[in-house]
Amino acid sequence: MRKYNIDNYVRWKNDVATSIAALPETNDYNKLTNKQIVIKFLPLVENIARKFSTAAQASGVMTIMDFIQEGSAGLTLAVHKLVREKLDESDDKEKTIKSFLSKRVRGAIRRGIDINRGNMRIPEHKLNEIRKNFGRDKKMLEIFFNSIFLSIDEKPRNDDDMIYQIPDKSEPYNIDMLNVYLDGLLRKHLNEKEYNVLKFSYGLGCDKLSASDIATKIGIEGSSAYVRISQLKKQAVQKLIENVDASQVIDYL
């Protein structure tokens, strides 16, 4: 892998920092020009670019500066597609605009990587099919793990909620087999705290415990210990979604 030019990278970071410091101090994006929004979110491009390994992607042909360049081009195009009226309707404008821009920056970097892979390339439409399929698998995993570990605390808001009026005609799981299988997945992909939080929340081979009791059990102290338990639970479920192959739970989906 050819090394990227450190001097250029440092110079770029300094230029970005200087440009950001000169921006107006406002959280109202409608008061910023497209160019100013691009400058404001250049650090987001760098953050995304650094998650693409220069050793594995594009056979080491592209450097971090190449990724930043491709991502910056994608950022510029994305900013010009912003519908400011829709952004204004959002309750969390920062989260909305970051989500919108991040997807397009990643797409631009991936396209740059695909173009520079080498002589044998997978057509862009096939790559898109692959990515979409991965998305479907991830969605199934999200539904599976969220329904098991995160929805156990959810209760109907009232008797009029339509979803609770629909009879469930699906075949019930073999709970013993499911529990043994889940235990294996948890042990493989989670650290000890994450494993114990899901185990005691779900009642996996033990009695179910409240968040406060789980905190005491695994040695988390403080008045907001239950909040930390909730965070660990969501963190553990996300780790399972990211690391478990959909084929491993296909029988339950």
CATH architecture of the largest domain: Orthogonal Bundle
**Count of discrete alpha- or pi-helical segments spanning 4 or more residues:** 11
Q: Radius of gyration, Cα only, in angstroms? A: 23 Å
Largest sheet: none
Low-confidence stretches: 155-168
In total, the number of domains comes to 2
Structural class: mainly alpha
Encode the helix/strand succession as letters. HHHHHHHHHHH
Sheet-strand content, in percent, reads under 5%
Percent helix range: 55-70%
How many extended strands? 0
State the CATH superfamily name of the largest domain: RNA polymerase sigma factor, region 2, helix turn helix motif
* CATH fold-level topology of the largest domain: Rna Polymerase Sigma Factor, Chain: A
Structural key phrases:
253 residues; 11 helices; Rna Polymerase Sigma Factor, Chain: A; mainly alpha; 0% strand; 62% helix; Arc Repressor Mutant, subunit A
General description of the model:
- The protein has 253 residues and is mainly α.
- It has 2 domains: 6-121, RNA polymerase sigma factor, region 2, helix turn helix motif (Rna Polymerase Sigma Factor, Chain: A), CATH 1.10.1740.10; 162-252, Orthogonal Bundle (Arc Repressor Mutant, subunit A), CATH 1.10.10.
- It has 11 helices and no strands.
- It has helices spanning 6-21, 34-40, 42-49, 64-80, 84-89, 93-115, 124-150, 175-189, 192-202, 211-218, 225-243.
- The relative contact order is 0.08.
In short:
This protein has 253 residues and is mainly alpha-helical. Helices cover 62% and strands 0% of the residues. It folds into two domains: 6-121, Rna Polymerase Sigma Factor, Chain: A (Orthogonal Bundle); 162-252, Arc Repressor Mutant, subunit A, CATH 1.10.10.
